[in-house]
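Q: What would this complex look like in 3D?
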Amino acid sequence: MTTKQSPLLYDKRDHIAFITLNRPQVINAFNVAMRDSLWSALEAVRDDPDVRAVVLSGAGEKGFCAGADLSEFGSAPSQHVARQVRFERGVWELWLSIPKPFVGALHGYTFGSGMEMALLCDLRLASQDGVFGLPEVGLGMIPAAGGTQTFPRQAGLSAGLEALLTARRYTAADALQLGLVHGVVSRDRLLGTAAQWAGQLTRLDPQVVGLAKRTLREGADLPLPQALELEMRLAAQAFSLRGATDRGHRRSPKTQAAGRRQA
Amino acid sequence: MLSNSIKQTRKGAVVLLTIAPVRATVEAIERLAIEISDACRQIQQDDAVRVLVVIGSGSGFGPDTFPPDGFTSPEQLARLRIAAPVAAVDKPVIAAINGPASGLGFELALACDIRIASAAASFAMPHLAHGLLPWDGGTQRLQRLVGPSRASELLLTGKRLTARQALDIGLVQRVVPASKLKDATEELASKIASYAPIALRYAKEALWKGTDMPLEQALRLEADLALLLHTSADRAEGLEAFLKKRTPKFEGR
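A: Here is my prediction, written as structure tokens for the whole assembly.
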């Protein structure tokens, strides 16, 4: 280890990239260094064909991420800040463009930017002690990593208005009921279960998973008739991929059996 | 005769708009619409007002729907809207639903950002049974707030939801005993009023407008609003208060 601790850890096992926010002494507050590392990590996820799913978690006991590091983002001169905001958006845009599935493993405090990063994941698993919220308006801000849009798209406009305007805190049970998270487990099972979810995703055809993500994301933005057309087009693409795989399978009985298990 | 179906009460930065029971007739609603619209315009322009609460007096929340006889054009119907002027306020609006909200009353509740219901509240969209359609935003806001599945159910069946059922589908955010409705609402309102006013308005805009945009454009809207906020004195105050671990004092600048 160097004396300077890395703000983000990246590890790869069994086709899963494990990204860990690593500033536990400040509950993984999101700062410029972490953002830069996240940028590189996301590029690695995008470009490495060996990565089929991602698990995102936070180091330390207290929480996944308590929000943006205000000591850093606040002190910058305004023009610099403005430039940063533009750049930050680039990170979120890069994230959204990646066709691989992300599983968020959320423990303890998941606030502000932390909540927003969680919302950029496709599946979210919380530990029982998880606490969630978007407290920005109490600080004179609004969420700026997509939260004003991703929260209502995941949990509904009605819940979104309450979350943003009242800065309410949600327990893991609340979050599960709202559909903000897809499962709740005990703290000691959090990472294991998240890895299991990701593992299941790695056993699917990565191209089909990518198409599935696209059909939901792009379809949500289209009028229904066009969305249905998109679905059919992508389904046909998946079907032709499957045809190609099946032809491959005929040459190899072993992979054919594996293919059947996936079906 | 005039200006007696609504009452404005000011408590700090919160305005309580109380709507008395009015008969569901063209004349009465046209008058009520003018009163609500005047009040909302004034509230919108008054920077010292940070949160609006809409509540019903008596047993119900707002008037029921009614056949708008003689009003056949959209322009004419527009004069019978009580929810539209409330939705045009860009500050947080809380509906305190004290009793049955049916027809126009339900549409009024849907134009608010947060709904708190007393246990006596209920919600219904009975228009179809009278050969009518909602005209005050009800169909559109309902499906945006609780999803198209629930909206179809409520519009097509006219089914009345209890407060508890409304909570379960996320239509209301909280249910309290009738005797506590006003206190609970005022408590929430003053909590919201302690937050930064411009940030609240931008958050409201990002949520309602972003819903109708493709994600990419919506994220751009969010980024633009966040950048604009960077120039506000309140943001600097919020940061400083956070770093010094004190309570921020926001002035809406």
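A: To summarize the key features: Chain B touches chain A through 54 residues (CB under 8 Å). Chain B has two domains: 6-193, 197-243.
Q: Very helpful, thank you.
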